[in-house]
Amino acid sequence: MTLKKALATPSGTPLLGAFIGLASPPLVEMAARGGFDFIILDEEHGAFSRLGTEECLRSARFLGTPAMVRTADANPTGIQAALDSGATGIQVPSVVTAAEADAIVAASHFPPVGRRGFGSTTSAAEYGFRQRSEVMGAAQAETVVAVQVESRRGVDQLTQILSVDGVDSVFLGTSDLSLDYGFPSPADQRMVDLLRELIPMIVASGKACGVHVTDLGQVNLLRSLGVRYFTVSVMALIVQSMRAAVGDFRSHVEH
Fold first, then answer.
1. Residue 146 maps to which CATH number?
2. Cβ pair 209, 170 in contact under 8 A
């Protein structure tokens, strides 16, 4: 089953995605072998060149793990670059209007659905070894378009954003949402209350809902509200593991 179909299956087991912020193919391979359902390369906050993105996507593809790219912004050039490099889909941060969401959909799909340009020598086209009709057919069937709502403005316009055809999922950016609302952390009860309001709206629209989690204790609650996929940060997991290993070592040395 493709990632696009999995996201569109609300009764399925929730998916777990790994955000990766370093252009490291071995790190992508480790995440894929670790069992994550999909990977998101983070060009918004991470360190990626065009070649680095392509090499990481190639590593994921080698192991059969879907890999999306969170673009730096909604610029169509960046969206096309990610998809030409072989991304399964794109996730665009800080979307605040339906017009922006509509433009993102257009940039993500070939005509007649959208305005994405075709390049016969790209990684997505296997550098010319894949027929245009095959590339375009697969892209239409498999490309995931996700938008992030992570501001008061985005929340205020959520109903309009949800009306845009071609948006497969809406990702609630709890970190930036909590900042914009003045909450001390994404775990603040007021943030949880906001999620209780927003998630059912997304689910009712027929689109998948995604949420980044730092507290796995919230997963069952969010799942009950209809969250289809969760994400965690590989970098944060590495930090936690390092701290735990050093702490464990110190405790053995001191005792």
1. 3.20.20.60
2. yes
Chain CA centroid to CA 77, Å = 18
Instruction: Please tell me what DSSP assigns to residue 47.
Output: B
Burial (0-12, 13-18, 19+ Cβ within 10 Å), 183 = middle
Q: Is the pTM of this model over 0.85?
A: yes
Total count of domains within the chain: 1
pLDDT digits (tens, 9 = 90+) for 16-32: 999 999 999 999 999 99
Q: Which run of H or of E encompasses 93?
A: none
Domain containing residue 190: 3-254
Angle CA(183)–CA(187)–CA(190) in degrees, nearest 5? 50
Query: How many whole angstroms separate alpha carbon 48 and alpha carbon 60?
Result: 15
Residue 24 contacts residue 18 (beta carbons within 8 Å): no
| Catalytic pick among 45, 109, 252, 255 | 45
pLDDT in tens, 67-120: 999 999 999 999 999 999 999 999 999 999 999 999 999 999 999 999 999 999
45 tagged catalytic? yes
